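Figure 3 (text version): structure tokens given as input.
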């Protein structure tokens, strides 16, 4: 079990590559609209608590399993113990559900990028622009297709490394830009009220829904419970500190999410004149709010161009990790050439993405469990499949292979500082929590 693959060049290489997968639309697009919708400060607080306990325990587990076995999810669980094989299969299904709809949002990002590049940013800030765009039958589909094509091209040509190199430079710029836009947003009239809403927990807004939403977001944002971190772990070197690497990824991922909220939520208050219904816009929140912010600032069109290009790269590194996972699963299963699999996955994803796109317009009457297609796939992966995979992973590690298997792997390099917390989380807290989450999702509480 010690077969080490050609690893990352050191700890930093691992952290950057895993962050490339983790930091994406989940942080910039999804986190702010959930925080806005679920009570602001209370959502933020619940998310932070979950990230340092739950997220930490799960990420350590996945990275350790990967490094221990040197394999990706679909094989790693079975190698540790035959009883676990099916968890790998379940985990592998998740990226297949996420990838197509992820690309629909990726397409929206390209559209907004082109709108700003062609100097039309102002138009995008007008009311109804976003709804008009996502509701139209052809245009969003074309942009989704472009996003899938570009992701496929990278995976097909095997130039992920090149993209990772570019994003190593771009992501810090994104961080700085996000801080800059946040500071600007806070200077807008009425923004302070939004800042308070976002950072001050209002405990009366707390409910199980807050926890369910924050938990789904945690999985999604940190690329957990779908085997991706197992794959990254399989490339990590034994001498590198696993615990502190996981902490770094979490901090980076959470910082970008927090800043994205800071950039958007106070601005929502500023532009709606404090009308709280503006907080419930769901997936459109970023696309509706940011053009207004850019429109109100001097040189805003340029800022818009740079912002959407950077977000595009953040989304691309995440979608590459999703597609790469899908392609390698098929390569393991069927002995077909990689290039052919890439092309099949590309076309299949384009087809599967169609309902998620049209569900915002001409197919908006078709609802599954009361949700349009995109929301349904999002719900299915984040609130059903990922909790199930995470639950099974906890039971598998806590009671089948035992937490010691993971602890020993962590301790190969350095002492495991949070070992006690880890053990309690994996064996007791996480499973109980996950069962509650699952039940509430399944009985339609959310
Ligand atoms: N974590 C990515 C994001 O926040 C999304 C993602 C999910 C990427 C699952 C890979 C796997 O955007």
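Below: residues designed for each position.
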């Amino acid at each position: 079990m010690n077969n080490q693959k050609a690893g990352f060049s050191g700890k930093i290489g691992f952290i950057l590559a895993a962050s490339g997968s983790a930091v994406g639309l989940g942080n910039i697009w999804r986190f702010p609209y959930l925080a806005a919708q679920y009570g602001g400060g209370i959502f933020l607080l619940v998310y932070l608590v979950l990230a340092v306990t739950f997220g930490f325990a799960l990420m350590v587990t996945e990275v350790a399993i990967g490094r221990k076995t040197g394999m990706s999810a679909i094989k790693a669980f079975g190698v540790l113990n035959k009883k676990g094989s099916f968890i790998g299969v379940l985990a592998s299904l998740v990226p297949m559900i996420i990838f197509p709809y992820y690309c629909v949002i990726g397409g929206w990002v390209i559209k907004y990028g082109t709108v700003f590049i062609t100097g039309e940013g102002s138009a995008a800030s007008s009311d109804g622009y976003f709804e008009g765009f996502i509701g139209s039958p052809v245009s969003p589909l074309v942009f989704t297709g472009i996003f899938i094509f570009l992701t496929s091209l990278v995976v097909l040509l095997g130039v992920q490394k090149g993209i990772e190199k570019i994003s190593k430079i771009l992501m810090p710029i994104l961080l700085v830009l996000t801080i800059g836009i946040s500071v600007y947003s806070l200077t807008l009239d009425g923004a302070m009220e939004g800042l308070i809403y976002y950072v001050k927990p209002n405990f009366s807004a707390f409910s199980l829904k807050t926890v369910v939403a924050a938990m789904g977001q945690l999985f999604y944002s940190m690329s957990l419970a779908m085997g991706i971190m197992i794959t990254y772990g399989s490339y990590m070197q034994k001498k590198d500190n696993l615990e502190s690497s996981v902490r770094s990824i979490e901090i980076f991922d959470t910082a970008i999410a927090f800043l994205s909220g800071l950039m958007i939520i106070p601005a929502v208050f500023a532009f709606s004149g404090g009308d709280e219904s503006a907080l419930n816009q769901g997936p459109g929140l970023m696309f509706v709010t940011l053009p207004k912010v850019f429109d109100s600032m001097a040189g805003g069109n340029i800022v818009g161009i740079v912002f959407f290009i950077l977000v595009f790269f953040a989304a691309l590194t995440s979608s590459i990790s999703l597609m790469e996972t899908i392609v390698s699963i098929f390569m393991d299963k069927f002995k077909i050439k990689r290039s052919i699999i890439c092309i099949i996955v590309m076309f299949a994803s384009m087809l599967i993405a169609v309902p998620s796109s049209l569900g915002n317009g001409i197919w908006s009457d078709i609802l599954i469990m009361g949700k349009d297609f995109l929301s349904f796939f999002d719900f299915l992966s984040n609130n059903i499949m990922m909790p199930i995979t995470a639950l099974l992973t906890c039971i598998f590690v806590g009671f089948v292979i035992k937490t010691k298997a993971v602890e020993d792997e962590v301790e190969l390099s350095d002492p495991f500082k949070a070992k006690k917390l880890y053990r309690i989380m994996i064996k007791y807290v996480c499973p109980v929590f996950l069962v509650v989450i699952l039940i509430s999702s399944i009985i339609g509480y959310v």
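Residues 394 and 426 are 5 Å apart (CA to CA).
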